Amino acid sequence: MIKGDYMKFYQKIIKKPWTYVVGGIILAILNIILFWFSGKTWRITSGFLYWGMGILEKFGLEHSNWYYFNVYGNELTKGKTFFNNEYTILNLAVILGALIAALLASEFKWKKIKSKKQLVFALLGGILMGYGSRLSFGCNIGAYFSAIPSFSLHGWVYAIFMFVGAWIGCKLLFKFLL
Amino acid sequence: MSSSKIQELKKNRQLNYKGKKNQLKYGLIFIMIVSFIYLYLFRNNFIYSIIWLLGLFIGFTLQKSRFCFTASFRDPIMVGSTSIFKAVIIAFIISTVGFAIIQYKSLGGNIDTDIMKIPGQIAPVGVHTALGAILFGIGMVIAGGCASGTLMRIGEGFILQLIVLIGFVIGTLLGARHFEFWDKLFISKSPAIYIPHYLGFPLSITIQILVLIILYYIADWYDKNNNMMAM
């Protein structure tokens, strides 16, 4: 009996995919809990910048000489480094959480890069997203998923223009990749 | 196709199936590893341990539900489907209520506080917001994933998304490097606008939820008329 229940749980929660709506509801609740406990909402891309700056500092560059790190509260908080901070914890946890979900459902697979074109587009896309995220104070999470519920107008403006960008991206995709 | 080839394919399939079955074990090993990290963080930094736990659940949820923000914007354009977009709107309705309560409590009801002191993601809005969002929108479609999707797919084993991550690091560095230019051009002249400052809390929440509900119905209507998959 207990084993049967366990199998049911396994099939339903672990093995089968969840619906988008379930995903959305859980992500919203997790973001609220994160905000409640840490005082900060879910953000991602600043963590990527921190990793990059951490690497550059290993080569002798000094972050405090950068204008960016002296304005808008972009300074490193005391006691934190570019590698030891809440973004690193959160980003690594997201990767590992997805890895565990994939493994438990036996869906993990190394997927190789198919072509040079794909590689170039991936790198270019990443650079565009990274650069854009500095201009708009965040990515699809920081300037959208966490910004709209924060009642900041920039979240809504971001949403509208991300849609414009996606439309341009689709045109480019049709033209060059498909 | 020759029968020997069919046999071979069958065999391959079985091998794949076996390989698949084995992954549960690795999953459990990783659960142990992340639990140890949790315990370590719990002893050294309580907030980190909570962030760690929440991040794991976020990653788990992203993977299980294939929650892809890129698809939420791309699918309506490319295939006319708004199912993920609708899920994002539902997430916004829930988080709007949750965030409002947290902000209200933190401000002690006094919303006229300095905008820098209000918790949450509040930033200057202006031309730079639009520019950044357009760049991001283009980038996420051609890279095939946004920030959260990139992390999630790295976890699923996509090597391509590691390249996207490298791009992200380079892009954020370049953006930060040029930040002074953009700040002087647009950002420093743009105000951060916290909607409750203008409308008060009750009205802001009501209007935002109403707008989201209307968007939901528009998306639903759009899906019914344009979804190529459903036709």
TrEMBL record, chain A:
Organism of this sequence: Paramaledivibacter caminithermalis (strain DSM 15212 / CIP 107654 / DViRD3) (Clostridium caminithermale)
Family: Belongs to the TsuA/YedE (TC 9.B.102) family.
Mitochondrion among keywords: no
Name listed for the protein in its UniProt record: Uncharacterized protein
Keyword Transmembrane carried by entry: yes
Topology relative to the membrane: Multi-pass membrane protein
Key words of the record: Cell inner membrane, Cell membrane, Membrane, Transmembrane, Transmembrane helix, Transport
Pfam family, one: Sulf_transp
Superkingdom in the source lineage: Bacteria
GO cellular component, one term: plasma membrane
Automatic annotation (TrEMBL), chain B:
Transmembrane segments: 23-40, 46-62, 83-102, 122-146, 158-179, 199-219
Keywords for the protein's UniProt record, in alphabetical order: Membrane, Transmembrane, Transmembrane helix
InterPro entries: Sulf_transp_TsuA/YedE (IPR007272)
Pfam families listed in its UniProt record: Sulf_transp (PF04143)
Name this protein carries in UniProt: Uncharacterized protein
Protein species of origin: Paramaledivibacter caminithermalis (strain DSM 15212 / CIP 107654 / DViRD3)
